[in-house]
Amino acid sequence: MSWFKRDDGDYPPPGGSGPEPNGDEARTVRTEGLWIKCMGCRQAIWKADLAANLNVCPKCQHHFKLSARQRIEMLLEPGYELVDRGLRSTDPLKFTDLKPYKQRLRKAREETGLDDAILNAVGWLGRHPAVVSAMEYGFIGGSMGAVVGETIARAVDRARESRHPLIVVAASGGARMMEGIVSLMQMAKISSALAQLDDARVPYICVLTDPTTGGVTASFAMLGDLNIAEPGALIGFAGPRVIEQTIRQKLPEGFQRSEFLLEKGFLDAVVHRRELKDYLVRALDFLHMQ
Ligand SMILES: [Zn+2]
After folding, report:
1. What is the whole-number distance in angstroms between the Cα of residue 81 and the centre of ligand 1?
2. Cα(43) to centroid of ligand 1, in Å?
3. pTM for the complete prediction?
4. How far apart are alpha carbons 48 and 157 in whole angstroms?
5. Biggest CA-to-CA distance, the chain
6. 117 Cα to the center of ligand 1, angstroms
7. How many angstroms is it from 38 CA to the middle of ligand 1?
8. How far is the CA of 50 from the centre of ligand 1 (A)?
9. Average pLDDT along the chain, 290 residues, taken 10 residues at a time
10. What does the angle CA 190 – CA 191 – CA 196 come to, to the nearest 5 degrees?
11. Which own/partner pairs from 41-45 qualify as long-range (CB within 8 Å, at least 24 positions apart)?
Protein backbone atom coordinates (compact mmCIF):
# COMPACT_ATOMS: atom_id res chain seq x y z
CA MET A 1 0.00 0.00 0.00
CA SER A 2 2.24 2.76 -1.22
CA TRP A 3 -0.17 5.57 -0.20
CA PHE A 4 -0.11 4.29 3.35
CA LYS A 5 3.65 4.66 3.73
CA ARG A 6 5.33 7.36 5.77
CA ASP A 7 6.96 10.09 3.71
CA ASP A 8 10.01 10.05 5.97
CA GLY A 9 10.76 6.38 5.41
CA ASP A 10 9.19 3.14 6.45
CA TYR A 11 9.42 1.49 9.85
CA PRO A 12 12.27 -0.99 10.08
CA PRO A 13 11.10 -4.57 9.54
CA PRO A 14 10.46 -6.40 12.82
CA GLY A 15 13.23 -8.81 13.74
CA GLY A 16 15.49 -8.31 10.75
CA SER A 17 14.89 -8.31 7.03
CA GLY A 18 13.54 -11.82 6.50
CA PRO A 19 10.17 -12.27 4.81
CA GLU A 20 7.03 -12.56 6.95
CA PRO A 21 5.89 -16.13 7.24
CA ASN A 22 2.15 -15.36 7.12
CA GLY A 23 0.02 -14.26 4.18
CA ASP A 24 0.32 -10.48 4.81
CA GLU A 25 2.92 -9.99 2.17
CA ALA A 26 0.93 -11.74 -0.52
CA ARG A 27 -2.08 -9.53 0.26
CA THR A 28 0.03 -6.38 0.08
CA VAL A 29 1.49 -7.36 -3.26
CA ARG A 30 -1.92 -8.02 -4.76
CA THR A 31 -3.40 -4.62 -3.79
CA GLU A 32 -0.21 -2.86 -4.85
CA GLY A 33 -0.99 -3.73 -8.46
CA LEU A 34 -4.53 -2.35 -8.42
CA TRP A 35 -4.15 1.06 -6.81
CA ILE A 36 -1.84 4.01 -7.33
CA LYS A 37 -1.31 7.14 -5.27
CA CYS A 38 -1.95 10.40 -7.12
CA MET A 39 0.90 12.93 -6.86
CA GLY A 40 -1.63 15.75 -7.24
CA CYS A 41 -4.23 15.02 -4.55
CA ARG A 42 -2.40 12.21 -2.70
CA GLN A 43 -5.50 10.03 -2.86
CA ALA A 44 -5.58 6.39 -3.89
CA ILE A 45 -6.95 5.85 -7.36
CA TRP A 46 -7.99 2.59 -8.89
CA LYS A 47 -5.62 1.95 -11.80
CA ALA A 48 -8.46 0.86 -14.08
CA ASP A 49 -10.18 4.24 -13.50
CA LEU A 50 -6.93 6.00 -14.31
CA ALA A 51 -6.42 4.03 -17.53
CA ALA A 52 -10.02 4.66 -18.60
CA ASN A 53 -9.43 8.39 -18.09
CA LEU A 54 -6.30 8.67 -20.36
CA ASN A 55 -4.03 8.47 -17.28
CA VAL A 56 -5.52 11.65 -15.80
CA CYS A 57 -6.57 11.56 -12.12
CA PRO A 58 -10.41 11.53 -12.08
CA LYS A 59 -10.36 13.42 -8.75
CA CYS A 60 -7.91 16.30 -9.28
CA GLN A 61 -7.07 16.14 -13.03
CA HIS A 62 -3.37 15.55 -12.36
CA HIS A 63 -1.84 14.34 -15.66
CA PHE A 64 0.21 11.16 -15.21
CA LYS A 65 2.90 10.35 -17.77
CA LEU A 66 2.05 8.40 -20.90
CA SER A 67 4.48 6.14 -22.76
CA ALA A 68 5.40 6.99 -26.34
CA ARG A 69 3.26 4.12 -27.59
CA GLN A 70 0.23 5.18 -25.51
CA ARG A 71 0.67 8.73 -26.79
CA ILE A 72 0.65 7.66 -30.43
CA GLU A 73 -2.36 5.43 -29.83
CA MET A 74 -4.16 8.34 -28.21
CA LEU A 75 -3.49 10.72 -31.10
CA LEU A 76 -3.57 8.62 -34.26
CA GLU A 77 -6.39 6.54 -35.72
CA PRO A 78 -5.91 2.76 -35.69
CA GLY A 79 -3.83 1.53 -38.62
CA TYR A 80 -0.94 3.97 -38.10
CA GLU A 81 2.55 2.82 -39.02
CA LEU A 82 5.65 3.00 -36.82
CA VAL A 83 8.62 4.23 -38.84
CA ASP A 84 12.33 5.10 -38.47
CA ARG A 85 12.98 2.24 -36.07
CA GLY A 86 16.11 0.19 -35.49
CA LEU A 87 18.60 2.95 -34.63
CA ARG A 88 20.72 2.29 -31.55
CA SER A 89 23.31 4.37 -29.73
CA THR A 90 26.93 3.40 -30.40
CA ASP A 91 28.10 4.85 -27.04
CA PRO A 92 30.54 7.22 -28.82
CA LEU A 93 32.38 8.26 -25.63
CA LYS A 94 32.52 4.75 -24.09
CA PHE A 95 31.00 6.48 -21.10
CA THR A 96 30.79 5.13 -17.57
CA ASP A 97 29.37 6.91 -14.52
CA LEU A 98 27.98 4.73 -11.71
CA LYS A 99 27.59 2.04 -14.32
CA PRO A 100 28.51 1.77 -18.00
CA TYR A 101 26.23 3.66 -20.39
CA LYS A 102 25.94 0.47 -22.50
CA GLN A 103 24.43 -1.29 -19.48
CA ARG A 104 21.94 1.53 -18.92
CA LEU A 105 20.92 1.32 -22.58
CA ARG A 106 20.41 -2.43 -22.39
CA LYS A 107 18.23 -2.11 -19.28
CA ALA A 108 16.16 0.72 -20.79
CA ARG A 109 15.63 -1.32 -23.97
CA GLU A 110 14.40 -4.28 -21.94
CA GLU A 111 12.07 -2.15 -19.82
CA THR A 112 10.48 -0.12 -22.60
CA GLY A 113 10.76 -2.43 -25.62
CA LEU A 114 12.12 0.56 -27.57
CA ASP A 115 15.55 1.16 -29.13
CA ASP A 116 15.76 4.66 -27.64
CA ALA A 117 13.64 7.40 -26.05
CA ILE A 118 11.58 8.15 -29.16
CA LEU A 119 8.96 6.64 -31.43
CA ASN A 120 7.96 7.95 -34.88
CA ALA A 121 4.65 7.14 -36.53
CA VAL A 122 2.70 8.15 -39.61
CA GLY A 123 -1.06 7.94 -39.78
CA TRP A 124 -4.25 9.92 -39.52
CA LEU A 125 -4.86 12.49 -36.83
CA GLY A 126 -8.63 12.77 -37.22
CA ARG A 127 -9.08 13.93 -40.82
CA HIS A 128 -5.43 14.96 -41.27
CA PRO A 129 -2.55 12.76 -42.39
CA ALA A 130 0.29 13.49 -39.95
CA VAL A 131 3.78 12.57 -38.80
CA VAL A 132 3.95 12.10 -35.02
CA SER A 133 7.15 11.82 -33.03
CA ALA A 134 6.62 10.95 -29.34
CA MET A 135 9.30 10.88 -26.66
CA GLU A 136 9.54 8.11 -24.06
CA TYR A 137 10.34 9.40 -20.57
CA GLY A 138 10.82 5.83 -19.31
CA PHE A 139 13.96 5.47 -21.46
CA ILE A 140 16.79 7.15 -19.47
CA GLY A 141 14.55 10.08 -18.54
CA GLY A 142 13.58 10.78 -22.15
CA SER A 143 17.06 12.19 -22.67
CA MET A 144 18.16 13.26 -26.14
CA GLY A 145 21.22 11.55 -27.58
CA ALA A 146 22.24 10.94 -31.18
CA VAL A 147 19.45 8.41 -31.80
CA VAL A 148 16.67 10.67 -30.49
CA GLY A 149 18.13 13.57 -32.49
CA GLU A 150 18.40 11.56 -35.69
CA THR A 151 14.92 10.05 -35.29
CA ILE A 152 13.28 13.44 -34.78
CA ALA A 153 15.27 14.87 -37.70
CA ARG A 154 13.94 12.01 -39.86
CA ALA A 155 10.39 12.80 -38.74
CA VAL A 156 10.96 16.43 -39.75
CA ASP A 157 12.31 15.39 -43.17
CA ARG A 158 9.42 12.99 -43.61
CA ALA A 159 6.93 15.79 -42.85
CA ARG A 160 8.67 18.12 -45.31
CA GLU A 161 8.81 15.56 -48.13
CA SER A 162 5.23 14.34 -47.67
CA ARG A 163 3.93 17.83 -46.78
CA HIS A 164 2.07 16.30 -43.85
CA PRO A 165 2.06 18.29 -40.62
CA LEU A 166 4.48 17.32 -37.86
CA ILE A 167 3.44 16.82 -34.24
CA VAL A 168 6.21 16.27 -31.68
CA VAL A 169 5.24 15.24 -28.14
CA ALA A 170 8.11 16.24 -25.86
CA ALA A 171 8.85 14.51 -22.52
CA SER A 172 12.47 14.86 -21.60
CA GLY A 173 15.02 15.64 -18.95
CA GLY A 174 17.15 17.29 -21.65
CA ALA A 175 20.31 16.31 -23.50
CA ARG A 176 21.83 12.90 -22.70
CA MET A 177 25.00 13.65 -20.78
CA MET A 178 26.44 10.20 -21.48
CA GLU A 179 26.85 11.30 -25.09
CA GLY A 180 28.40 14.67 -24.22
CA ILE A 181 28.84 17.05 -27.15
CA VAL A 182 27.18 14.55 -29.51
CA SER A 183 23.92 15.01 -27.63
CA LEU A 184 24.23 18.81 -27.65
CA MET A 185 24.77 18.81 -31.42
CA GLN A 186 21.28 17.33 -31.84
CA MET A 187 19.81 20.70 -30.80
CA ALA A 188 21.36 22.39 -33.85
CA LYS A 189 20.61 19.47 -36.13
CA ILE A 190 16.88 19.35 -35.33
CA SER A 191 16.55 23.14 -35.29
CA SER A 192 18.05 23.45 -38.78
CA ALA A 193 15.75 20.69 -40.09
CA LEU A 194 12.80 22.59 -38.57
CA ALA A 195 13.93 25.78 -40.31
CA GLN A 196 13.71 23.91 -43.63
CA LEU A 197 10.24 22.66 -42.67
CA ASP A 198 9.25 26.25 -41.95
CA ASP A 199 10.59 27.37 -45.36
CA ALA A 200 8.49 24.63 -46.96
CA ARG A 201 5.47 26.02 -45.05
CA VAL A 202 4.53 22.70 -43.48
CA PRO A 203 2.99 23.16 -40.01
CA TYR A 204 4.77 21.96 -36.89
CA ILE A 205 3.05 21.72 -33.50
CA CYS A 206 4.92 20.82 -30.34
CA VAL A 207 3.05 19.35 -27.38
CA LEU A 208 5.04 19.85 -24.18
CA THR A 209 4.30 17.30 -21.48
CA ASP A 210 5.58 16.74 -17.96
CA PRO A 211 8.56 17.20 -17.83
CA THR A 212 10.15 19.09 -20.74
CA THR A 213 13.48 20.54 -19.71
CA GLY A 214 17.09 21.30 -20.71
CA GLY A 215 18.25 21.05 -24.30
CA VAL A 216 14.86 19.86 -25.51
CA THR A 217 13.13 23.02 -24.25
CA ALA A 218 16.05 25.03 -25.62
CA SER A 219 15.56 23.65 -29.12
CA PHE A 220 12.64 21.94 -30.86
CA ALA A 221 10.11 22.04 -28.00
CA MET A 222 9.86 25.84 -28.29
CA LEU A 223 10.08 26.07 -32.10
CA GLY A 224 6.56 24.99 -33.05
CA ASP A 225 4.17 27.11 -35.08
CA LEU A 226 2.11 26.34 -32.00
CA ASN A 227 3.65 25.33 -28.69
CA ILE A 228 1.01 23.82 -26.45
CA ALA A 229 1.33 22.07 -23.11
CA GLU A 230 -0.61 19.75 -20.87
CA PRO A 231 -1.81 21.21 -17.52
CA GLY A 232 0.69 21.32 -14.68
CA ALA A 233 3.65 20.18 -16.78
CA LEU A 234 7.14 21.10 -15.58
CA ILE A 235 8.75 23.08 -18.39
CA GLY A 236 12.07 24.84 -18.09
CA PHE A 237 15.75 24.89 -18.91
CA ALA A 238 17.71 24.74 -15.65
CA GLY A 239 16.17 23.59 -12.37
CA PRO A 240 14.76 26.16 -9.89
CA ARG A 241 17.57 25.69 -7.35
CA VAL A 242 20.26 26.59 -9.90
CA ILE A 243 18.30 29.67 -11.02
CA GLU A 244 17.69 30.87 -7.45
CA GLN A 245 21.37 30.56 -6.65
CA THR A 246 22.37 32.39 -9.83
CA ILE A 247 19.97 35.36 -9.65
CA ARG A 248 19.84 35.37 -5.81
CA GLN A 249 16.08 35.77 -5.76
CA LYS A 250 13.19 33.66 -4.58
CA LEU A 251 11.23 32.31 -7.53
CA PRO A 252 7.48 32.97 -7.76
CA GLU A 253 4.78 30.38 -7.04
CA GLY A 254 4.10 27.96 -9.91
CA PHE A 255 7.32 28.92 -11.68
CA GLN A 256 8.13 26.56 -14.61
CA ARG A 257 4.63 25.12 -14.77
CA SER A 258 2.50 25.26 -17.95
CA GLU A 259 -0.01 27.78 -16.61
CA PHE A 260 2.72 30.21 -15.51
CA LEU A 261 4.47 29.94 -18.89
CA LEU A 262 1.19 30.54 -20.72
CA GLU A 263 0.59 33.68 -18.67
CA LYS A 264 4.11 34.93 -19.49
CA GLY A 265 3.73 34.27 -23.22
CA PHE A 266 6.01 31.25 -23.63
CA LEU A 267 3.15 28.97 -24.66
CA ASP A 268 0.17 29.34 -26.98
CA ALA A 269 -2.23 27.17 -25.00
CA VAL A 270 -2.59 24.75 -22.11
CA VAL A 271 -4.85 21.91 -23.19
CA HIS A 272 -6.36 19.14 -21.07
CA ARG A 273 -5.42 15.67 -22.35
CA ARG A 274 -9.09 14.86 -22.91
CA GLU A 275 -9.32 17.72 -25.44
CA LEU A 276 -5.84 17.40 -26.93
CA LYS A 277 -6.69 15.44 -30.06
CA ASP A 278 -9.68 17.62 -30.98
CA TYR A 279 -7.55 20.69 -30.34
CA LEU A 280 -4.82 19.45 -32.70
CA VAL A 281 -7.37 18.58 -35.41
CA ARG A 282 -8.88 22.07 -35.18
CA ALA A 283 -5.45 23.68 -35.16
CA LEU A 284 -4.53 21.81 -38.35
CA ASP A 285 -7.85 22.87 -39.91
CA PHE A 286 -6.86 26.44 -39.12
CA LEU A 287 -3.40 25.95 -40.63
CA HIS A 288 -5.13 25.03 -43.93
CA MET A 289 -4.06 21.43 -44.14
CA GLN A 290 -6.15 19.14 -46.32
ZN1 LIG B 1 -5.35 13.32 -8.03
Report:
1. 34
2. 6
3. 0.87
4. 39
5. 69
6. 27
7. 5
8. 10
9. 57 46 49 85 94 95 97 98 97 96 97 98 97 98 98 98 98 96 97 98 98 96 98 94 92 93 97 98 84
10. 95
11. 42/3, 43/3, 44/3
